[in-house]
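Reply to dn_fold:

You asked what the input looked like. This is it:
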Amino acid sequence: MGNAEHWENVYRDKQIDRVSWFQPHAEISLNIIRSTGLEPGVARVIDVGAGASVLVDDLLEANYRHVTVLDIAEPALAVSRTRLGERAALIDWRVGDVTSVELPPAGYDIWHDRAVFHFLTGEEDRKRYVRQVWRAVRPGGYVIVATFGPNGPLQCSSLDVCRYAPETLHGEFGAGFELIAHQTEAHATPTGKTQEFVYCYCRRAL
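and this is what came back:
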């Protein structure tokens, strides 16, 4: 089974508020995005591997108007489009694998990823991801990546994952990205478990 088929099945078989990564609001992500200081009406934001995340709802509520949502699974994006109703027309929806999908060069001021990078267990996949970030984020733009922390689970959705401390996560991106801050989240899953997430907030070199 390929990656796309796996995630399409996940979003067809489970209610969105029952997947382990569900959040009623993406508060930490939104706060970090706001901390960039970029004007909501101007900043170009991409949420990669977004699934049916409510970050897009929160961004619209905060008056961000140039938002791209990318995921490998069309059914996940369909859930978000239905949830947003008429507001879905304000979003640039894209289906594809983040490591290979074609994105506009220097097309984004802010790159956001919560819970995709840790699924890239192969070194070459991680390198392709970083090259994609380097191409798609404008010089001086911001990169926010959240993964399972050192005490997080070893698997998610029946797939192996990598766990990261802040310094090792930042190390995957290299000297071309300045680490501005990092944060740890104790995420409560819908089944009552706690998962450790680490957020790294970086700036792409000029």
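Residues 3-204 form a domain with the Rossmann fold fold (CATH 3.40.50.150).
Hope that clears it up.
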